[in-house]
Amino acid sequence: MSQQRPGTQCLHAGYRPANGEPRNIPIIQSTTFRYESGEAMGKLFDLEASGYFYTRLQNPTSDSVAAKICALEGGTAAMLTSSGQAASFFAVFNIASCGDHVVASSAIYGGTYNLFAVTMKRMGIDFTFVEPDCTPEELDAAFRPNTKAVFGETIANPALAVLDFEKFSKAAHAHGVPLIVDNTFATPINCRPFEHGADIVTHSTTKYMDGHANAVGGAIVDSGKFDWNAHADKFPGLTTPDESYHGITYTERFGLGGAYITKAVVQLMRDLGASPAPMNAYFLNVGLETLHLRMPRHCENALIVAKHLQSHEKVAWVRYPGLPGDPYHELAQKYLPNGSCGVVSFGVKGGRAAASKFMEGLELASIATHVADAKTCTLHPASTTHRQMNDEELQAAGVSPDLVRFSVGIEDVNDILADLDKALAQV
Predict the structure, then answer these.
(1) Are residues 228 and 251 in contact, defined by beta-carbon separation less than 8 angstroms?
(2) Which GO molecular-function terms appear in the entry (predicted)?
């Protein structure tokens, strides 16, 4: 059969049952797998054969779902992780270690920023953060001889900045390093970063991919296009023998299409164990089956909400890439012509106090530390995740006191608008 379209891949990619086998991806809820001989199992430990022996490394349920996400992104290999944070960490740590350096966009999820700027810095990996709107010259100046990767988000959370793939991939490749992109908000339904120069894609599958706030998870997908051998001195972990596996060299044994993910599984998952539960992988697959239907509705509703808020007398400003006049509208039209995401950020006139009062007036929308699922939810960072900061500190962190992150669900949009209007009327 010819290459399937995304809507078909959401349902069928990654798993094809044989005669008499279950039509749905089965849940292999087992920690271990039986073998007839130690020799047969030993070949798995030596990476001489493929198969399963311990779910911390690999599980058939998880691998089938990873294969579906790989197909949706147009990659060559993929893996699931226990969370989006684990995916971001593994994606970078797989090729960067103590003494290395990474360039990252400053417009990224706060948890990822903290992972990079605090936790991984303690591990000896330095990060230079650049504004997404920096000039090519400013971006080029951020690189060092020990730079190993560039990291950005397709659509930043919650700033909603759209990454200029052309600019960032050109700079990364000029310095012989891959571009890693978190594609959580756009999903492969609205953007496939590999088509715009990215080399590695990550996801918090907890968000739109799962879609129903059922299961925390993450994913990493390799494009198979980055030539690790051409820059062998920068990536010895992939291009030189691994003594923990009897001296195999990943790029030689698994090729450019499989080396990166194989190393992440057999080294990082082996030692750090951020593996997804098979049941969570199953829930993720259920969500993926309707991803192509939900994303257009999210985007349609979000644009209506953004336009409505833009004309509301009690709203100070609105950010949404699909909104004409938005600072990132032009990039969104270039890289996300079919829609961006369902998240709208806006400010309530009156600052922190007014925004808090607005939140209290919502009924349909849930106040939740979550984003991007079927039900509308919202968060006021200044009174929740960033409540310890004063207004000046919030501004320095890029979070204004009046900012409300509004994740538009797939309910009837008229009910969402009515909820917004009722809450704003109480401000």
Answers:
(1) yes
(2) cysteine synthase activity; O-acetylhomoserine aminocarboxypropyltransferase activity; pyridoxal phosphate binding
